[in-house]
Write a structure and sequence with these properties.
heterodimer; A: about 110 residues; two-stranded antiparallel ribbon; B: about 290 residues; about 0% strand
Chain lengths: ~110, ~290
């Protein structure tokens, strides 16, 4: 059991805990099997994660194309801001974190700095 | 679509739920040296929803207290008056993002809440690494930075629809679309609200100037940090501030922070972790 991000939810997964909207409205009850409709509903309501069965055993591995596509979409959001060293650094770290969010990997800073 | 003038906004702001009442009283009491934790606890306990939320937050893993805290008075004795004051404000603000409107409005407010929470977490993470900034205060500043957008969404639905359409169609930032459609913008609206709520000048300023931090006068560092926190929250794609773009980092704001660039990565890693932890605080207990 474990919390996984909305982007990783797949139809067929079973909820360990109910999913509620940020205002506390119940969107899906505990124990139900997710359908595409549920996932779309969660996205509309700004839900970012859900507690599903067996989540800890799942690790999505992204292909090189998928990683590249994700990085390109991030660059698009930065739209012309990338001539600045600081923005470049923010974009670099964002790419790293967003990719690992998809892959549910834990990250620590490379040199242990705070 | 007609332009909105500031008087219209002031009158709408006056019709909003009186979220500020408890906060007002709390502020007054905190300033008063004769007020005890018990007095303050009693005042807050009059608002049951606020009390329940406060207690849930202090008892969560967020604070990591070993004993269970069952009264507001106890929470105050442990946390202190100032952090409690900030917590009351943060908790009161949550209900402001509620809606019983259409699905579209509900979803937009939910996304705006996620973005505001991310900005709050980011501002706090930055404040821990910048000498003169107070992390608790910065959390509140981040949480409130887009409060003007909430007012807009809640009180000018037709104009809001137009603005969102324009953002989608032209691919322009929300701020630009606001100027085009209504002639005023969310920093201005937020500024009016912060005066209404009698928020501290530093806080009001960071709300009013988070898009133009170089104009800050009472605390350039605080406003600069909120400006950067907004950028980080958007870069990490938590929720939505109304558009997909990432604002240009204001150079003088960056310089005012005296933050080495190498601190950005550990800060963003902390934000990533803390954001998901904070989100769990909003779930009702079941």
């Amino acid at each position: 059991m474990g919390l996984i991000s909305i982007n990783e939810l797949q139809p067929g997964m079973k909820l360990e805990r109910p999913v509620v909207s940020l205002q506390g409205a119940l969107l899906a009850a505990q124990g139900i099997e997710l359908t595409l409709k549920h996932i779309r509903l969660f996205k509309t309501w700004g839900v970012t994660e859900a507690d599903v069965e067996g989540a800890n055993q799942q690790k999505e591995h992204m292909t090189e194309e998928q990683v590249k596509a994700l990085e390109e979409s991030i660059d698009a959001h930065f739209q012309g801001n990338l001539h600045d060293a600081v923005m470049d650094e923010i974009a670099r770290v964002a790419k790293k974190l967003l990719t690992s969010r998809r892959q549910s990997v834990n990250l620590e800073p490379a040199d242990g700095t705070y | 679509m007609e332009r909105i003038n500031l008087d219209q906004i002031v009158s709408k702001v006056n019709t909003l739920p009186t979220i500020a009442l408890v906060y007002d009283r709390v502020c007054e009491m905190v300033e008063n040296p004769d007020v005890s934790a018990a007095d303050l606890g009693k005042a807050i306990a009059e608002d049951q929803t606020l009390t329940a939320r406060l207690l849930r937050i202090v008892n969560s893993a967020f604070y990591g207290f070993p004993e269970k805290i069952t009264t507001v008075t106890r929470a105050i004795s442990i946390l202190g008056f100032e952090p409690l004051k900030n917590l009351v404000l943060a908790t009161s603000v949550m209900k402001f993002f509620d809606s019983d409107g259409s699905n579209c409005l509900g979803a937009r407010l939910a996304n705006l809440w996620s973005h505001s929470l991310a900005c709050a977490v980011s501002a706090r993470a930055l404040a821990k690494r910048i000498e003169h900034l107070n992390p608790e205060e910065m959390f509140v500043a981040g949480l409130l930075h887009d409060i003007g957008k909430v007012v807009l969404l809640q009180t000018f639905p037709e104009e809001t629809k137009c603005i969102f359409s324009l953002v989608k169609v032209k691919g322009i930032p929300f701020l630009e679309a606001e100027h085009e459609v209504i002639g005023v913008d969310h920093p201005q609206i937020g500024s009016i609200l912060s005066k209404q709520w009698k928020l501290p000048p530093r806080l009001g300023e960071s709300i009013a100037l988070h898009h133009s931090p170089n104009m800050a006068q009472s605390d350039a560092q605080q406003t600069a940090a909120v400006h950067l926190a907004d950028i980080l929250a958007r870069a990490l794609q938590f929720g939505s501030g109304g558009d997909d773009s990432i604002p240009t980092l204001n150079r003088s704001a960056w310089d005012a922070l005296h933050l080495p660039m190498t601190r950005l990565e550990p800060t963003m890693i902390e934000i990533e972790r803390e954001y998901f932890r904070s989100l769990s605080l909003l779930r009702p207990s079941y």
